[in-house]
Amino acid sequence: MTAHGQGARCTHGGRMAQAFGLHGPSLNLPQCARIRSLNYLWSTALIVEHAKRPGIWNRAHHLDRMTLRDLVVAYFQYYAIQAYLLLAAISIGVAIWSPPSLVAGLTAAVFAVIAYPLVWYLLHRFVLHGTWMWKSPLTARTWKRIHYDHHQDPNHLEVLFGALYTTLPAIAAATLPVGYLIGGPGGAAIALAAGLLTTCLYEFAHCIQHLSYKPKNRMLAKMKKQHMAHHFHDENGNFGITSFWPDKLFGTYYSREERAAKSSTVFNLGYTDEVATLFPWVASMSGGVTKGHPRKRAANQNDTQAADAA
């Protein structure tokens, strides 16, 4: 390959160059080599990270290439789901050891289940889709992990699951205080268990919506359609997963037909090249700013790798 050809290919990867501080309209060959080295190190780090994990989680999984059976196996082997189930069992044990009254226990459980969609809506809309987390190096990594990565590749199973260091505090804060007020320690334990088990159901329902299939049940098909619109058409609405009553309450519920124009930021949540110049931390951890449909990006990446191999 000629030097001119190498330069052209390096210019094509300009966003990666900017993310790592390599600026300018064109890049020289040493800079090209540095970018390729960074790409290689990034890919190798992900492979090594997966290889350290037990069972089927020693590799990446994408829901659009999985069956329901594949999902069930992966779901119950994921550490976060196992942690939720274990903590729920411990909470139930605490409730048995220090039981509230029947009415208090039922009230605490019902509160947790009913409040869950509203709590999720508020967190999803104002935290995960807020603009403040990417503006600080202290929170940029967390935002990238818990939502940016999910939107830039919605069918990547591993980043679909919430991170324990963010989900557990949120579940505890939403359930323990009110549960305690309703029924003391036993009420708090029941509310926490209900919140944890509801999280498991939400996570599984979320996974199912990203499988490559159309549900036969009309309600499930509508649910999937609304969530897919959030991921592939316009991210500024349909913040629910299994329940959209908070969206309807706050005016963010929509059908795809009501919004003809596709959002230009549906895959990057507004974290654009312009934003990255001011707040570069997410871009530096992601190899640039996400643009375009995930399948098209994957195809372009495969073409680039094939060209490099040639």
Short description:
The chain has 310 residues and is mainly alpha-helical. The chain has 14 helices and no strands.
Q: Topology as H/E string?
A: HHHHHHHHHHHHHH
Report the span from N to C terminus.
9 Å
Helix proportion: 55-70%
Number of strands: 0
What key attributes describe this structure?
310 residues; single chain; 14 helices; disordered C terminus; globular; disordered N terminus; mainly alpha
Give a written overview of the molecule:
The chain is globular. With about 300 residues, it is mostly helical. The chain has 14 helices and no strands. It is about 70% helix and about 0% strand. It has a domain at about 65-270. The protein has helices at about 5-10, 15-20, 30-50, 70-75, 80-95, 100-130, 135-150, 155-160, 165-210, 220-230, 245-250, 275-280, 280-285, 295-310.
Write the layout of secondary structure elements.
Elements: H1 3-12, H2 14-19, H3 29-51, H4 68-77, H5 79-97, H6 102-128, H7 137-152, H8 157-160, H9 164-209, H10 218-232, H11 245-250, H12 273-278, H13 281-286, H14 294-309
Helix pairs in contact: 1-3, 5-9, 6-9
